[in-house]
Write a structure and sequence with these properties.
The chain is α+β, with helices and mostly antiparallel strands. The chain is built from five helices and six strands; from the N terminus they run βαββαβαββαα. Strands 2-3-1-4-6-5 form a six-stranded antiparallel beta sheet, with helices on one face. A hairpin with a 2-residue loop joins strand 5 and strand 6. Helix 3 crosses helix 4.
């Protein structure tokens, strides 16, 4: 099994024009723990770069969605000529395998996913500890994940370990790859 080295995750936009790239060391194993030894509390996001043409998104979804693989989050950033489709799946290993064998240009990155608390201002509750820790949120998008009636949000942050350290004492629930795998119907 490969070991995780935080220095390998310098930039989430590490596209390779030849196809699949992976920002970790080898990419063939599920990362089990952070450098500080805590259980791995991040979700793996796949970013697919593609030409902005009618039907390309439908073709991508046709390719990735199958009986044992479900998209649980998607975010699309586009311009006139191209788009980046960011996705999180219920089975990281299966998604990694399918996309690695494809002709798509793909990059992977770790994102923090937090269950939204049942409060009047849940996003403030989630973002306040990150502000206190001076962790920047580059972007965020919802997860189609509901446990106990609570929604969830995925966030790409500039310092994942600092974000996890800031969230840990708050009692907020961090969603892991195992949570997505255990949730038989993520919708």
């Amino acid at each position: 099994m490969s070991t995780y080295d935080p220095a390998d995750d310098e930039d989430e936009d590490d596209f390779d024009a030849g196809g699949y790239t992976d920002s970790d060391s080898g990419g063939d194993a599920v990362l089990q723990a952070t450098a500080s030894g805590r259980p791995w509390a991040a979700l793996r996001q796949f970013s697919v770069f593609m030409e902005n043409q009618v039907g390309n998104l439908a073709e991508l979804m046709k390719f990735v969605e199958c009986d044992d693989l479900k998209v649980v989050a998607v975010s699309i950033t586009d311009s006139v000529d191209f788009g980046v489709i960011r996705m999180i799946f219920n089975n990281y290993e299966r998604a990694h395998e399918r996309l690695r064998l494809s002709d798509y240009t793909v990059a992977e990155a770790d994102v923090l996913a937090i269950e939204l608390p049942d409060e009047e201002r849940p996003f403030l509750t989630v973002t306040r500890p990150l502000l206190r820790a001076e962790v920047s949120i580059h972007y965020a998008y919802p997860l189609m994940y509901r446990r106990n009636g609570h929604g969830a949000v995925a966030m790409y942050v500039d310092d994942l370990d600092a974000a996890l350290n800031a969230i840990e004492p708050t009692g907020l629930t961090v969603i892991t790859e195992q949570d997505l795998a255990d949730d038989g119907n993520p919708y």
